[in-house]
Amino acid sequence: MWFEILPSFGIITAVLSVPGFALYGLHKLTLDNAYRRNTDERWERVMYTRDMRLTGNPYQCNGLEAIPDK
Q1: Whole-angstrom Cα distance, residue 23 to residue 36?
Q2: Scanning 14, 15, 23, 54, which has its CA 20 to 30 A from the CA of 5?
């Protein structure tokens, strides 16, 4: 019958969802933040490197106070 496919469907769905949940924990462990910034566009990569250079943490909100006065 059609319901015989449900156990194998459940196993395949569970196995394929593991990497997505594992990345959440891996990012939390290594970056101290569970979410990544989107760096697909060039502008986003530039802003990521700018925030990393100014504060050392690209996930911290930066304002004018993050730019050092010279």
Answers
A1: 10
A2: 23
